[in-house]
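Aggregate trends can hide what the representation actually does to any particular protein. For completeness, the protein is quoted in full, as a sequence line and a line of structure tokens.
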Amino acid sequence: MSTKVTVELQRLPHAEGLPLPAYQTADAAGLDLMAAVAENEPLTLAPGQYALVPTGLAIALPPGHEAQVRPRSGLAAKHGVTVLNSPGTIDADYRGEIKVILINHGQTAFAVKRGERIAQMVIAPMVQAALVPVATLSATDRGAGGFGSTGR
């Protein structure tokens, strides 16, 4: 069962005419974010190149929530284009424009066009930890075993 939360959204001038983010299916977790680049100036990413892509949107999350900017699987699978700092985190107190750092891991140049769905945004509850310094940690079967210690 999902819970709805109200998020205020501001459309910036360079996003005029673009659809607002939307869930593509009834059970989708992410809202699609679109590129707010100029109609006559697509942003072309050469192989290996990355760029900050504007969405033309700013949001006000309620306290106790975050937004995560995640890749769209279709862009990654078909073109090798993904979100570089995945997931990108938007804190509840951030009021600037949402921008997406895209990178082209593909073999050919990729043109990011106006209105293209470039990432998805997931709104989630957030927890802050109260860190407590201790001299030793409790023991576990795994202990300090890391990177591959529990299997392949």
